[in-house]
Design goal:
Length: 83
């Protein structure tokens, strides 16, 4: 079995490398997606757009509700994940 691993090493190395890279990318995306700062920044931008008159009060309230709901869900997931 050791000889097979040695002979397959040149072919298996790129496959393992691609798997490792995919794992690292998935971990980075998940950590950024579950970062509350992303939602807080979106809320701040939303308020800035409202103040500038780019969106209506109704559109602001709808988007704000969605963002706050997402923030609460994110915090609940983090609380469940923490021991």
């Amino acid at each position: 079995m050791g000889l097979f691993k040695l002979l397959a090493f040149p072919a298996s190395l790129p496959i393992c490398g691609v798997g490792w890279i995919a794992s690292q990318v998935a971990q980075a995306v998940e950590s950024q997606w579950n970062d509350p700062k992303r939602i807080e920044a979106a809320l701040l931008q939303l308020e800035t757009r409202l103040d500038a008159g780019e969106i209506t009060e109704a559109a602001f309230e709808e988007a704000e509700t969605q963002l706050i709901t997402e923030l609460h869900a994110m915090r609940a997931r983090r609380a469940q994940a923490s021991p």
